[in-house]
Amino acid sequence: MVIVLWLGLPFGGGCATGTGGPALGLGKKGTPWTIRCKESQGPERMRLLEQTAESLRHTPGIRTKEVTVRDEPDGFARLYYGTYWRRVDAKTRKHDTPPQLRNDLELIKQLGDDRGQRYFVQAMIVRVPTEDVGNAAWELSRQTGVYSLQVAVFETTDDFWEFKQAAADYCAWLRQKGYEAYYHHSTASSVVTIGLFGRDAVIDKPKGLPAYSQAVVNLQSDELLRYNRLNGSIYYVRDDKGTRIPVPSRLVEIPRRGAAGIP
Asked: Fewer beta carbons within 10 Å, N or C terminal of the chain?
């Protein structure tokens, strides 16, 4: 496949309360973003995208070393281009778009063949994907059981992108304190859980919401395990009367390896 520049586009260069635990790192120059050019699914996904990537690397105006292909945990292979640091404007609360990013995205979208077919018309700006980290023995999907008690979730914010590392660190910190902690990463968030339980951990009641077994209730009586913390802090929601309520820890199903999106 030969890629040409189509149409002659010019080249262009909830509230939270802190509660302790390991510190979370914040980006000093913003968070890293990239251009997702294309994605593919199926047994031939990597071979097909590598072919496209190689053609892209030989395209005028493309920085060869910034073309990458990743086979990701959700079953998709994706072709990315460039790394760009973005900050949130204090007044508008929107991410800025550096000129280099804007120009590169326009360039990528205009690339096509000599018949006018564009290859990357669905290219978009996304956060840079991060590698999974942590002690593999503590990865939740490797464990037996049905449920685990989710006590923390780590998500990206305007200035925070190392959610996987934060979850792995928090899991290790809880382990040092004697808790049976596990972690699980997804594309945009990571969770930390405690313990492994069977189906008898959830008790069906004739009326109202199901109850948890005494073993789960005992864990929730611990101050560190009582809440489902967000980025290391207790966070709150409001009920139908407007009262602020801390979000409690909760049982979640253990993800099964081999299921969609879990390698």
From this structure: N
